[in-house]
Each structure stands twice: as C-alpha cells, then as structure tokens.
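Side project, low priority. Logging it here so it doesn't get lost.
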Amino acid sequence: MLSTSLARVTRQLTQMRVGATPAVATSSWMDCSSMMARGFASKPSKKKKSAPKAHAPAAGSTAAKPFLQNQEWVKFQQSISVDGFQTGQTLEATVLKKSKGGKQARNRKARELMMQQQQEKPSENRFPAIRYSPEETQDLLKLAYESLPQREGKRGTRNQKRQDRRWKLVRKIRAKYKAQIQAAHERRMEHRKWTRAQTKGVKEAA
C-alpha cells in the first residue's frame, strides 16, 4: 500500500509542468498530500484471533476435589490440634459439589457429613456412659434429697392468703364488668332490631 501511494505521488509530480503557476503547483501538491494521507490511513485492520474456549470437564471425568479454602482451614486446624483431646476441630477436608439451594444448604450438608464422619470414627477419648441400677438410683435420689438444706424463716402464709383474697376480688370485678358489656351489647342489638322493623313497616305501608 505504501509503495502504491509513492508511485502515484511520483507520477503526479512528473506530470506537473515546469512553468506552472504557484497556485496550480500548490493545488497539485495538496492533491498529492491528500492521496498519501488516504494511503497511510487505509491500513488493513488486523483481526485479533480469539483464543479457543476451554471446554469444561465433564462431571464424571475428573474426581471431585475439596475446596481450596476448606483445605487451608483444615491445615490451620491440624496445626493447632492437640493430641489426646477431642476439641471438635475439622481435621479432614470435605468433598462437596455445588448444587441448588444456596450457601445454607451446602453448609447443612457439610455439617451432616462431618457428624457422620465423627460417628463412624471410634470414640477413643470418650468415657463410656455410666448406667446405674434401680437400687443405686433410689439411693442417689435419697442422698440428694437429704442433702437439701432445711428451710428457715417465715413461710409467708398470711401474704399468700391475702393475695388469694385480692385476686378473687379482682376476678369478681372483671366478671361483673364483662356481664355489663354483654348486657349493653344485647340492648344495642334490640334497639337496632326495633328500628329495622319500624322502617320495614313504613316502607310496606307506603
């Protein structure tokens, strides 16, 4: 493209007359300049070659791997774990696949998987459950009741009787108030019924 533009400019200059006026020479030179500008501007655009898209591996082709964050967390838990004590730390990376349900569902599945793994492992640092016979249970209950301290001071029986009388009076007053409200409602409904009957009679007579 550049060689073609230069050839055109050279041909134009050779065709110019030697005795031409300055105006003609100037116009010819401007035409040559515009041709060169067009030639330089019309460079072919280089298309960027798009990189081939990497196809996602199939679900069953590769083995499921634990999450990277979970692996880092498990490494930290393993570094601070103490031998001989069960502190509930996560010492193994869980393998989970992202599915529908959101973060809460995945966390629930992770907790269920962790509990299942803990149940499958033999309990080395746990004491066996203590079981007592019925006779031993009765003896322990008797000992517990006997060790209770004796009550000292007043029993508060007068206060209890006074509170009973007070709340009995309160319930009586509230029952009377409720009966009055119900009676007022019945009188109101009777008056509305009488008004409706009178209106109906006047309409029928008219």
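Brief comment: The radius of gyration is 51 Å.
Revisit when time allows.
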